């Protein structure tokens, strides 16, 4: 590990990101790199600090991988001594967290900076309403739905500790990768559907992924209905369940074998929102991000009855299917596209509830303004 990646007393960061997780979790931070880069520029202009924002990774592999995707300074320390150096910088005002790693609570013991939870997407998974949220000074929520969900589940969590910022990732510049443009699927005829399943989860309450039960039926239904399919497997699919891993491999082989299929291995979810005419999702942030398009969405419900599902949530408000009915997806999507006006009106209503204003640049602007507010407030209280 290069010496330059070790935390230093003179780093001078006024904002930091603490990141810890297993080897498959790098995507949680990667999706925040562009919004953080924008925030870095804002903080530089606002406070006149040459390099105001730095990232601390608790894994060497993560530090090396993240440093290849950003020009922001990346530091690494597995040890508490390095964590102390990073968190004890006198200039540090705010630290952001994008997950609920157990190591976050080593960092939360430091009282100097404010601790802000961002999460790595907006969804109605059980993890989004963890009681751990109470440990942070503020929680930056996406919109009304997130605040209502937290207030309804977490007893004693005050609304004053939540700030809506939308999903800044949706304001990132988008470009269609050549892999899609050059693919046979891009040249075929028929509407495009974006299929984005989630993973199987690490507990019954988080078992929202159904690829082992529905994956092949869903894809065959879409192909048979004449759709071009962009299929994006979740990076964690199969981490817990061998059956899910096998199903993922089967689905990938099927998609690769079809002229109108495209296996999406691009860096993130962005360009698909512009290319696809409709989407089929399970409970994940992709489903909520898709709402910003105003185009038809079908949700696949979890198969495990123990998975936590919110009454009146997205499964109830959007068009949804049980996993054993996945073979109907192609017909249902064709029907939704035939009644686009109704589907789009519903999507716009849901987008407002889950994301707030989604005009160009509005979500990134809200994130930056909220972060600067937190920095200023902490500065005043430390004065």
TrEMBL record:
Gene3D superfamilies: 3.40.50.12580. Pfam families: Glyphos_transf. Transmembrane segments: none annotated. InterPro entries: Glycerophosphate_synth, TagF_C. It comes from the Bacteria. GO terms for molecular function: CDP-glycerol glycerophosphotransferase activity. GO terms for cellular component: membrane. This is Putative integral membrane protein. It comes from Brevibacterium yomogidense.
